[in-house]
Write a structure and sequence with these properties.
Helix content is 40%, strand content 13%. The longest helix has 31 residues. With 411 residues, the chain is an alpha/beta fold. It has 14 helices and 13 strands.
Length: 411
């Protein structure tokens, strides 16, 4: 059997993208080394909560094959890699370990098959310069091939958000592709076009420009979020000001806009914090200091302290553990930050989230009480913190005598 695409990495972003390709009519060889994940997918079970994911898995089933083996990669002409590139602790850069591993396994399969050409597409977020300095030389040295002759390389970074990943892949604000030639960039865009609802604005750039554009976009958004959050702190310290009235008013200016411009909790999740750190790192590497990014981090940390300063009593309830509504991902969310950074030290903490997996995903080893609903939290808590702004909880269960910390102003 021939495949249009061999796709490596079936994580929170990879699986939605792979199934989108399959729904778009492409024959997809989907590779991941996680056996329990593959078991669920081969039984058509969504492995986590993400809007439309179960529907995607069902609809894609005729065109997608899930496996942990690279042996059939040579039966495709294009390999897309979307694996995790975790941040290096205390450094800010990304680890390319999983990308390198995927490339080595792909190249070994191609070499064993004696295939004479192949196309590589990377979607994982990487530090600017990684493709030219590390990935292309790896392919050339392993296979004895030359870029632009036996193989081509494209970079298509994802600009998607957890909770709307499938929608964002299908209907992006714009499509960015970096490649070793304009012709390769155009062919890569045509490959992705099968899943696009409309024809988005498209930018075809070189590989290094695409790498920088990816981290720069998220770094810019954190600047916007931080400014809104600074306004939120300022508004609380000034008389008779509702910060939402301020941000809604000036957000009408097209130069500003209303997206990501609401005072709330510190920015979190799997992308914003680490892309901010990466932007600082890449600037440092060339002797520059991204002062605006450092300011974003400073405001983010000050906001966390500001929220924690409002805690009263000995028992604190945290409602909404995901870093945003509609997800079980807790990474760098307000609840996880408060716990991991010791802002609730000495307090007994009771938590509630409508998704059980959110509790399991919390990166925290301390003792926590698990509540069954909002009312259960309020039965024992002196202070309740509404951590992620989810409007679907029944906040009417919160009695008036409890101290409520609501950064989103929804209760």
């Amino acid at each position: 059997m021939k495949y249009d695409i061999s796709f490596i990495g079936l994580g929170k972003l990879g699986l939605p993208l792979a199934t989108n390709f399959a729904i778009g009519g492409k024959k997809v060889l989907a590779i991941d080394l996680n056996e329990s994940l593959l078991d669920k997918l081969n039984n058509k079970q969504a492995p986590w909560i993400e809007p439309l994911l179960q529907e995607n898995i069902n609809e894609a089933s005729e065109n997608i094959t899930y496996t942990n083996s690279y042996s059939f990669v040579p039966l495709s002409n294009t390999t897309i890699i979307l694996v995790n590139t975790p941040s290096v602790e205390r450094d800010g850069s990304f680890s390319n370990e999983y990308v390198v591993s995927a490339l080595i396994s792909t190249c070994e399969a191609l070499k064993a098959s004696r295939k004479e050409s192949h196309n590589f597409v990377l979607s994982s977020t990487v530090m600017p310069g990684s493709i030219a300095s590390e990935f292309i030389p790896l392919i050339e040295n392993t296979l004895g091939w030359t870029l632009g002759k036996e193989f081509n390389f494209s970079y298509v970074p994802d600009f998607v958000a957890i909770g709307s990943v499938i929608k964002n892949f299908r209907d992006p604000d714009f499509f960015l592709v970096g490649a070793n030639t304009d012709e390769v960039a155009q062919k890569t865009f045509q490959l992705y076009a099968c899943m696009l609802k409309l024809a988005p604005p498209t930018s075809k750039v070189n590989l290094q420009e695409a790498e920088l554009a990816k981290v720069a976009l998220n770094a810019y958004i954190t600047t916007k979020i931080s400014f809104a959050n600074y306004l939120g702190i300022l508004a609380e310290k000034l008389p008779n000001i509702n910060v939402d009235n301020v941000t809604n008013a000036i957000g009408q200016d097209k130069r500003i806009g209303t997206k990501y411009f609401k005072a709330g909790a510190p920015y979190g999740g799997t992308c914003f914090p680490r892309d901010t750190w990466a932007f600082l790192k890449v600037s440092n590497k060339v002797g520059m200091f991204a002062e605006q990014m450092a300011a974003n981090e400073k405001i983010n940390n000050e906001l966390l302290d500001f929220i924690a300063s409002k805690v009263e009593g000995k028992i604190v309830g945290l409602i909404g553990l995901g870093f945003k509504p509609g997800t079980t991902v807790t990474t760098e969310g307000l609840a996880e930050k408060l716990l991991k950074m010791g802002k609730l030290k000495g307090k007994q903490v009771i938590v509630y989230d409508k998704y059980k997996d959110s509790f399991d995903n919390l990166s925290y080893d301390g003792e926590l009480l698990l509540a069954t609903d909002v009312g259960n939290v309020c039965d024992v808590a002196d202070t309740v913190i509404l951590c992620n702004g989810d409007k679907e909880y029944d906040y009417s269960q919160i009695p008036p005598n409890i101290n409520v910390i609501d950064p989103w102003r929804i209760s």
